[in-house]
Amino acid sequence: MFSDREKVHVFRRFLFSYMLILALPLLSSYFIYHVSIKKIEQQASETSNKMLAEARNLIDQKSEQVESFVYQLTKNNDVQQLMDKDPAERDRTYETYKVVKSIEPYGLTNPVFKNAYIYFHNLDLIVSPESAFIRSSDYYKAKLLKGLTLEEWNKRFHQQYQSGFYQTDFPLTIGKKQEPIIPYIQSIPLGTKQNPQASIVVLIDEKEITTLLDQVATQYDGSSFVYDQEGNIIFGEQINKKMLVYNKKVGEYQLSADQDQFILIETKSNTNKWTYAAVISKKQLSKDVQHIRTLHLLVAIMTLLIGIAISLIFSYRNSLPLKKLLGIISWTEATKLKNPYDFLHSNITEMIQNNNRLKEQVQKQMPILQDSVFRRLIGGEISSVKEAYTLIEQAEVPLKGSYGFVGIIQIVHFIKEFNREMLDEMSVAQLVIQAELQEIFQGHIFCGNIKADQVAFLLTYQQKTSDEEEKQIEQSLKTFVRKLEEKNALKVNGGLGKQFKNILDIHQSYEQARVSLPFVHSIDQKPSFQKYNVIMMEGRLEYQFSIEVELRLITAVSNGEVADVKEILAQIYDDNQDKQYLLQQIGTQILSSLKGTIIRIISKNIQLNQGLVDDIFSRLEEMSQKRNEFYHDFQQLRKMILELTQNFYENKRVGGLATIQRIKDCINRDFSDSNLTLQHIAEVVNMSQKMLPIMFKEHTGVNISDYIEDVRMNYAKKQLLETDDAIEKIAIASGYNSGHSFRRAFKRNTGTSPSDYRKMLKTLE
After folding, report:
1. What is the DSSP letter of 518?
2. Are 204 and 181 in contact, with CB atoms under 8 Å apart?
3. What integer pLDDT is reported at residue 334 of this predicted model?
4. Are 235 and 209 in contact (CB under 8 A)?
5. Quick check: bond before 189 cis, omega within 30?
6. What is the rounded CA–CA span in Å between residue 558 and residue 506?
7. Which of 184, 229, 241 is nearest to 208 (CA)?
8. Please, are residues 273 and 228 in contact by the beta-carbon 8 Å criterion?
9. HSE of 397, CA atoms in CB hemisphere, 13 A
10. In sequence order, what are the beta bridge partners of 119?
């Protein structure tokens, strides 16, 4: 027997496997956690950059507003008039008032322009949106400007040319609260550097800019500042300058070497040469993910502890059976192998392999067994329901219930003897058919090959199907037949038996499906599917209209052989007219067969005259809506078939010109007959009265009525020229009922009366 040491060894192997399985997801989750943390921090940094860029855009927008405001004032007529005012003129109140009113809306609508003003040099006058100051010193005192003396303020702001310049090299405050401001100065007129007449000054509240930047910095416990291209910090006094080092080579600020716990982000202005910067804390940036770290650590510890406990339990439980097996194996058997576990593994593996081989052999025989049971069912070889269900269960035939249908699919071909190559092709075709059927009727169908060119299928259901469900099944099978031709270029015919209600009735449904299979007429015929119908099938055997006769009729029509068609139709009528006691039934079936023959002829021949086809379909529709009268309907169908034959004859033998010539000959011969009608001409040329004018117009481009009138007019003109016959006589000879109708037609055709026409001809002679 094996020692306890060997048993413990098995336990350790199981434990090691479980611990390895536990460690892999923990390691992968640890890796994913670190990647996620980095991604979150990166997104936070990107968010800060976006916020800084948005703040920059807003500040640039304000700067553009200032420049637009200044530009509008330079074009202001009121400002221009006051700027050109002679200092000697003392009365300038009205002009000053107009300027105040011009710029007043700017101060009311935009707080940026609240402290804007225009200084007129020659008048020492300041005009703001609020009021006007006749001396600049008054404005200086009223606004409580600090940071520059009055003289420095006048010198820097008013006594030198400034072009869109921000004064940032000195601190300047305004008002009682001494709010820091940034002055923007533009001398006007633009371009007059030597002698500017006025200065437009906009005192921008520094908070308008710092508030936007502080939103970025304060979010992550940092600070913001703005510096110009020289590295001078314009505003941002709260920034700790010891944290920053200005690199003159690149023109940018950088963090000091000991400030690795911070991040510096910058963005340059699009409108001026300022750079907006923010210093944010890395610790604060990653503060949002600290709880994720804590939660992840707790989950990892809990998972590890629970995983170890589960591993111990499963290792013990799974190693226990192996320990028992090792306990009953003798040493002599075990010493043949170095590892007792390998010994067990090899023996159990061999047992499993033997079992699998046996199972595979059974599975290989299963299709043969199923096919055998299927053949016995459709062949009617099973006598009891109990025996049938026993065989079905043994062969695992997938039947859903005792209700269903049997159908047959036959491959269309004209091969009498199959060689090996053809058998292989047929086998492939049968596989395709079975696969398509399985796809359509998933779970409800069982298929089997019963002949080299036939596949039988069994549809089963737990309960009787309704009429609507039967129609759906039939429609699905018809779609299946069309799909095979379109998708796989495989032509098949199908037959479906009536629904069986008992397992033993499968044989009867199979025989019905076999009988309902359509005949194969031609390799070019359209695939079809037929469901068994008792009345239809019995009637087919009772009237004389075989498939051979139908094929002869179709061939004769297609060849345009009128005499043969008449002979075949007469034979069909003669062969069936003596069945007086079944005349109605036989007649109805013959009429239906002839209608089907007409439709098949039309469907196979696209070269037929479309007008004729439409006319025939229209007449068939009219016949279907009336009560059947055998003799009359037979003659109507006979006439349609002869028209088709004539059309084939005209198209294939002589073409349309021969028919047109016959029509013209008939008109030239009978035009003098006042009773000449389309019906008469149609009967002469053996055509439909409806088709006659259509065909004539297609070939000649002239309406047949116009042609008849032209023939009559030409004859009348000749008679007027060559004879002295009376107008009435010529009218009758030309085919008109009276002289009045002749004169009216003659004048419509020539524009003059017959007598005037004769006089004109006599004069020309």
Report:
1. P
2. yes
3. 46
4. yes
5. yes
6. 43
7. 184
8. yes
9. 30
10. 126, 199
Structure tokens that stand for 231 in this block: 């590295």
Question: What pLDDT does residue 406 have?
Answer: 92
Q: What is the DSSP letter of 500?
A: B
CA–CA separation, 101 vs 130, rounded Å? 9
Residues 6+ apart with CB under 8 A from 534: 498
H/E stretch holding 631: helix 630-649
Question: Tokens 């009787």 — which residue?
Answer: 464
Query: Domains (ranges, CATH) in the chain?
Result: 50-284 (no CATH), 398-532 (3.30.70.270), 536-638 (no CATH), 655-765 (1.10.10.60)
Burial label, 314 (beta-carbon count in 10 A; 0-12, 13-18, 19+): middle
Instruction: Give the containing element (helix H, strand E) for 520.
Output: none
DSSP state of 111: G
Divide the 765 residues of the chain into consecutive groups of 10 and give the mean pLDDT of each group: 51 76 77 71 69 74 78 80 76 80 80 81 83 82 78 79 68 76 80 78 77 68 75 68 75 72 77 77 66 75 84 77 64 51 66 75 78 86 84 83 89 70 86 88 84 88 88 88 85 87 87 71 62 56 66 80 83 63 54 83 75 84 67 82 81 66 88 86 83 80 88 88 86 86 87 86 72
Residue 146 gets which letter from DSSP? B
In angstroms, the CA 281 to CA 288 distance is: 13
Residues 6 or more apart whose CB falls under 8 angstroms from that of 150 comprise 136, 137, 140
For the beta carbon of residue 444, count every other beta carbon within 10 angstroms: 20
A 10 A CB-CB count for 354 gives: 10
- For CA atoms 690, 692, 695, 698, the dihedral sign is negative
Q: Which residues contact 308 (CB under 8 A, 6 or more apart)?
A: 19, 22
Distance of alpha carbon 622 from alpha carbon 633, whole angstroms: 11
Phi, psi for residue 500 in degrees, rounded to 5: -95, 150
| Long-range CB contacts (within 8 A, 24+) of 335-342 | 340/2, 340/6, 341/10, 341/13
Helix residue spans in 259-398 (DSSP H): 282-285, 290-328, 331-334, 340-379, 385-395
Distances (CA, A) of 115 to 66, 95, 144, 657: 12, 21, 12, 100
Question: What pLDDT, on a 0 to 100 scale, did the predictor assign at position 699?
Answer: 75
Q: Are strands 528-531 and 454-461 parallel, antiparallel or unpaired?
A: unpaired
Whole-number pLDDT of residue 362: 67
pLDDT of residue 405: 92
Q: What tokens were used for 554? A: 């179709």
Q: How far apart are CA 624 and CA 614, in angstroms?
A: 15
Taking residue 763's Cβ as centre, other Cβ atoms within 10 Å add up to 7
